[in-house]
Amino acid sequence: MGAAWPYIECFSNILVACELLFCIPMLDLRVSRPKAVAMTVAYLVVFNSRNINNLLSASSARGTSWIISASTIVIFLASVVLIHLVFSCSKRLALFYGAAGYATENLIFYVRNVSAYFPGFPLDGMGLQAFRLVGSLAIAYFIYTQLVRRYPRGHEPNVTNGFMLAFVVLTLVVTNVLNTWVRVDGIQGPEVAILAILCNVMLLMIEFDVFRQSSMEQERKIMEQLMVERERQQRLSKENVDLINVKCHDLKHQIAALRDMPAGTERDRTIDELEQAVLIYDSAVRTGNEALDTVLTEKGLICEGRGIEFTCIADGSALSHVGAVDLYTLFGNALDNAIEATEQVADPDNRLVSLRVGRRGSFVRISVENTCARTAELVDGLPATTKDDPNYHGFGLKSIRMIVERLGGNMTIEQGEGVFALHILLPAG
Taken in order 77, 80, 84, 86, is the CA torsion positive or negative? Predict the structure, then answer.
């Protein structure tokens, strides 16, 4: 075990472990789990840094530092390719997480080699080994709690800034080349370690502050655009529903007048059919909240037209403290998602959408349930997109969650056999 340990505790293995620290919580797998494990093990065997450096050093005694630096860069780039092949992410995003893992590996490197860079370090033997293990785990835990866990799955960084990404990667490469020269020439010292540690910490801060801020700013702009569009739709929907109700009211009076005229069986049958058709559109919902009435009437008409049974029991007065645009966005998105999922059900008789809104103590409970063809995969508490444009799709539920959290409530999702349920709990006004 002692002879094999250097091949286990080597740069390539720790690099991959650090990269997985970022990738596993934040990214979905592109391939099956067994295949992902097999590809990772194959990488660790083929690109084992201890084996590679031993072979290269034995073949050329001159220019050893250049050889080690080049092999380090190749191993790093190969790990980025591994991330892209194993996880569902773009090449730039793979490079982003690869660079984050590289910077974390550098920090752990100085803990593992503390006695070389700090000659007066008081520990040795088992004490030194324990310090290296605990210190490495402490860095990994700190990085996970302060960076990884703060940015959950679904909040991917915006890596469109190629200049900034190139700056981070090139700085990492230059830092490692200089560090390799220092180690090969035997001139390690505390000042080298401190400067390198500060440099890698700075790079991690740049990655997870600059890139994340730009990503959140981009998402905020899209959300604002959706809110503006929802406000426009809310105004148009109210006008359309009011117009339909006026026309239906007039038509019912006309039909009643026709009934008073002498007519035969055929005419009575035609009038019955016409009245039944009018009743489909005369489906205005009355909940005690005008904004909620508008959106529920609109979605009820859509369900009727698509052969979906829509049931609604709603106390709109319980939501009088919520703004009209927020109500339209919240219920519009929730019912749009329910209708879309229900349409995929093969059996027309099993296409059901139900809405319940009511007070429960000092809270208002909102439940939207629908039948569905399959169980949705949840990512960061939200269903994973099945659309071709994952960057845009999904803002419906995100906007619901944003509104709910801003109003001081919470949102949960439940799934059963062929049933999907969205539950929202809001403080009562």
Answer: positive
Per residue in 22-57, pLDDT (tens digit) is 999 888 888 899 999 999 999 999 998 888 877 766
Whether residue 274 is contained in a domain is answered as: no
Structure tokens at 349: 């008789």
Strand partners, 358: 365
Quote the CA–CA distance of 385 and 102 in Å, as a whole number: 31
Q: What is the CATH number of the domain that holds 290?
A: 3.30.565.10
Q: Coil, strand or helix: which one is 412?
A: strand
Cα distances (Å, whole numbers) of residue 56 to 45, 62, 76, 174, 308: 16, 10, 17, 21, 69
Q: Which two tokens stand for residue 328?
A: 């339209």
Same domain, 188 and 117: yes
Q: What is the pTM of this model?
A: 0.54
* DSSP codes joined into one string, 64-121: HHHHHHHHHHHHHHHHHHHHHHHBS--HHHHHHHHHHHHHHHHHHHHHHTHHHH-TT-
Cα separations (Å) of 306 from 41, 280, 336, 351, 353? 51, 12, 12, 10, 12
419-427 vs 363-371, strand pairing mode:
antiparallel
User: Quick check: 350 and 309 in contact, CB under 8 A?
Assistant: no
For residue 11, the enclosing domain spans 5-222
pLDDT at res. 92: 87
3-class SS shares of the chain: helix, strand, coil, % to 5: 65, 10, 25
Residues 202 and 308 placed together within one structural domain of the fold: no
| C-alpha span between 421 and 414 (Å, rounded) | 5
- DSSP alpha helices (H): ranges in 351-414? 395-406
How many distinct structural domains can be found in the chain?
A: 2
Contact predicate 98/83, CB 8 Å: yes
Calpha distance 366→385 (Å, rounded):
23
Structure confidence at residue 181 (pLDDT) = 74
Evaluated on CA atoms 289, 293, 299, 304, the torsion sign reads positive
Q: Phi and psi for 158 in degrees, rounded to 5?
A: -85, 105
The helix/strand count (H/E) of the chain reads as 15, 7
Q: What is the pLDDT of residues 239-292, one digit of tens each?
A: 556 656 666 666 666 666 666 666 566 666 666 666 665 555 555 567 888 778
